[in-house]
Amino acid sequence: MSSLNERDLNNTRKAQMDLVFFNRVPKVGSQTFMELLRRLSERNNFQFHRDAVQKVETIRLAEDQQQEMAEVISELPEPSVFIKHVCFTNFTKFNLPTPIYLNVVRDPVERVISWFYYVRAPWYFVERKAAFPDLPLPHPGWLKKDFETCVLSGDQECTYTQGVTVEGIGDHRRQSLFFCGHDYECTPFNTVGALERAKFAVEQQYAVVGVLEDLNTTLSVLEKYVPRFFEGVRNIYATSAEYLTKINKNNFKPPVSEHVKDIVRRNFTNEIEFYQFCRQRLHKQYLAAHLPQRIMTGSLN
């Protein structure tokens, strides 16, 4: 790892407005981060905005929808935070000022297991039914599925095939999609093309991509690289950690064996590479911010 330069790793300086766009990946602890941002908005005097709950959440938008969303966000008062489940959207494409892009990732296999049980949790359907009474209830057989049997039986829901595209809300396999963007080339599962596009976006556009498994490092980097919004985040988390770690926790999720996880990992090679790429970048940002200047400008062997 060479030339750890904090300025080179700080994309916050590229932002053209005082606005954070958190296009959150599902099941990466984003509810916890939203609560932190809500509390930080009071402490650091910025506005907090999140997209309304939708009956059918579409994360990949047509170009006119992208532009409409970007225009709405751009018109928010500064400083603000806007949070939405949606793919990376390049504001400059629509001649709009660039926001501060943020997101969080998680081990992709753990994440797909979490999603599998999240959409089957009883409270999930109670909340959805309350918001949208006309939604049909799922089939009992689908609700009773367990992840291990789903994988070992070759069930289509738990078959992760290289290059296959499965559109719709039910397909949350591709964590990299939230960074790759809205183009169709981003949709095939576990492809090199989507991986490289996602890496490029992270490296060139995102101020910080946090890692759920490295929460302390993530909070430290956020506080250092996006201080206008995240100053004091570590103190807020430290005083409320017990509550924050329970947000959206699914007590209905049973353990999954390492054997089954290993089977799934074989088909998640590029998704795992993307996760490791984000993790390495986060650690580089942390080191650059904390190493003495004499070391930062030199070379690490």
UniProtKB/TrEMBL annotation:
Keywords from the UniProt entry: Glycoprotein, Golgi apparatus, Membrane, Signal-anchor, Transferase, Transmembrane, Transmembrane helix
GO cellular component: Golgi membrane
Species: Drosophila willistoni
Stated name of the protein: Uncharacterized protein
Compartment list: Golgi apparatus membrane
EC class of the enzyme, as a word: transferase
Major site of localization recorded for this protein: Golgi
Protein's UniProt keywords contain Transmembrane helix: yes
Membrane topology note: Single-pass type II membrane protein
Classification via Pfam families: Sulfotransfer_2
Name of the gene this protein is made from: Dwil\GK19630
Coiled coil: none
